[in-house]
Amino acid sequence: xxxxxxxxxxxxxxxxxxxxxxxxxxxxxxxxxxxxxxxxxxxxxxxxxxxxxxxxxxxxxxxxxxxxxxxxxxxxxxxxxxxxxxxxxxxxxxxxxxxxxxxxxxxxxxxxxxxxxxxxxxxxxxxxxxxxxxxxxxxxxxxxxxxxxxxxxxxxxxxxxxxxxxxxxxxxxxxxxxxxxxxxxxxxxxxxxxxxxxxxxxxxxxxxxxxxxxxxxxxxxxxxxxxxxxxxxxxxxxxxxxxxxxxxxxxxxxxxx
Length: 257
What we know:
257 residues
């Protein structure tokens, strides 16, 4: 990729940040509040009845997956509802395409934006969990940025694919209900993924979130970090390349029609 194309893509990233920071507190509050309330309600409430889950308390088990889930939700809503509104109602991209910016640079800018956003949101939630004593080795905490970025890129690609094919904004509700919610509930966040039937476990690993949860657990618990990073990061990168390519082709076609 030419440096000039990267520079143009970064204009999209900066544009999104400029808009986002205008209501910064309102924009970040759901991202931080939801995992915190899950920890308080399930971890401290239900956790009182679950004393040993893979050698961890339920509070310790929940935290890594909930941190990663922020990247899932952040990236999906940004590249589905957010992207669709900018594309269809605000005509932001139509205006951009009258400049030297082309569709691929638009998509690259959006990918950079969701990767940064997912990484920082994941780190922010992890810092809250540090206050609960849920991160065993603080020296490993920067790895959360890597996990959040990968999950955001993979799940953001899913959001872009949805944006390319939905006929109206209400159809995102079906995508969320029948696709994103199952990923959230069945990717090893709330119970060990090994307890799932083999077929269901295989399906979960076809998508980035389950791999992200595994790496996050390794980092939070300081267990087999090197293996988790090598194996699950490689799987996620492969998935990102495939999903990202499909998303780029579909959105490029949508923007130019």
